[in-house]
Write a structure and sequence with these properties.
single chain; alpha/beta; Aminopeptidase; 8-stranded mixed beta sheet; 36% helix; binds N~2~-sulfamoyl-L-arginine; binds zinc ion
Length: 334
């Protein structure tokens, strides 16, 4: 559709999801606000399943979480979650769609929650002022700097390296874990609504990577073999679909980072602070996926964040293929 030929400002993205849910009322619920950003914008969510909402607890329906746009300039991450949500619903609705049977099966046994834009204040700022803005837009107390890196502000392993204490840094971790309203909203919502989560993916750009925990420690994730199998399946599906090479690896092998969403997803289920603390009882498969372009194509000047809109559909299709490979793997895992 024409929608995927361009990137769109935040109010249009909200309308897109609201309309999408309205077109598929038996499958989708749009929640216009799960909470507010520092500047008062609503953070939205859409939930998709073919199981009636009131039956999902009793049937122990497994849950999957996709989020985009935690980093404001990574526009393709927003377009990709739009594409995935749209594809899931249209494939389910259209019997002639090649993925119809797959969508019916998956939506009969699971529930997807999609956060279109984790960081709407930053995203809005990339449209109005600075295309290369990354962080949120909260003024930092005691300095004239703005913004915390939301992907350094999650509480798991917070402040243990690969993040900055300097408010002017692009990787500023914030004054304390969960100091940022956006991270608070997202984690509270996840803890109250995602009790049966099995998979959570944070989409970013760029470098073409499928990254698995841990990111703040070289402590081996207790589920590394399973996490690797899932990550490798995503990589292979992408290669088979578009020919693009993504690398599947551990976060820490890229570089150390603490307070990331992905590590929190992996450790969240038993509510303890770190994977070590909870004796390795991980359950949520957390991933960071870095979309196109490749690091070579993107270069070091940051041009890689400006991915032409012609790439939205090809990236959407390769990531849809990755999700088709990954989702059954996590659903089948007891
Ligand atoms: O640094 C990040 O937050 C992510 N890269 S980005 O260029 N999109 O900002 C990657 C996080 C992956 N985690 C670790 N390397 N630990
Ligand atoms: Zn990012």
């Amino acid at each position: 559709s024409a929608w995927f030929k361009e990137y769109h400002p935040y109010p249009e993205i909200l309308s897109f999801f609201s309309n999408l849910a309205a077109e598929h009322p038996s499958l989708a619920t749009f929640t216009p606000s799960i909470g507010k950003t520092y500047e008062g914008r609503d953070i939205a969510a859409i939930t998709i399943s073919a199981v009636p909402a009131e039956a999902r607890d009793a049937l122990k329906v497994k849950q999957i979480w996709w989020q985009g746009m935690i980093h404001a300039r990574e526009w393709i991450s927003g377009a990709t979650v739009q594409f995935l949500a749209h594809k899931l619903l249209t494939a389910h609705a259209d019997e002639s769609d090649p993925d119809h049977t797959w969508a019916v099966k998956v939506l009969n046994e699971s529930e997807f929650t999609i956060i279109p834009t984790v960081n709407p204040d930053g995203y809005e700022y990339t449209w109005s002022r600075d295309r290369m803005w990354r962080k949120n837009r909260r003024p930092v107390t005691g300095s004239s700097a703005y913004g915390v890196d939301l992907n350094r502000n999650y509480p798991d392993g917070w402040g243990t390296g690969g993040a900055s204490k300097n408010p002017y840094s692009e990787a500023y971790q914030g004054p304390s874990p969960l100091s940022e309203p956006e991270v608070k909203v997202l984690t509270s919502y996840f803890l109250s609504h995602m009790k049966r989560a099995v998979l959570a993916i944070d989409f970013h750009s760029y470098s073409q990577l499928v990254l698995r925990p841990l990111g703040y420690s070289s402590y081996p994730a207790p589920h590394d073999a399973k996490l690797k199998a899932v990550g490798d399946a995503a990589r292979d599906a992408i290669r088979a679909t578009s020919g693009k090479k993504y690398v599947s690896e551990r976060e820490i092998d890229l570089y150390a980072a603490s307070g990331t969403a992905e590590d929190w997803f992996y450790s969240v289920d038993v509510g303890k602070k770190t994977t070590e603390d909870r004796g390795g009882n991980g359950r949520v498969y957390g991933f960071t996926i870095e979309l196109r372009p490749s690091a070579n194509e993107g270069g070091w000047g940051g041009d890689g964040f400006i991915l032409p809109p012609e790439s939205i559909i090809p990236v959407g299709e390769e990531i849809w293929a990755a999700m088709k490979a990954v989702v059954p793997k996590v659903l089948d895992d007891p």
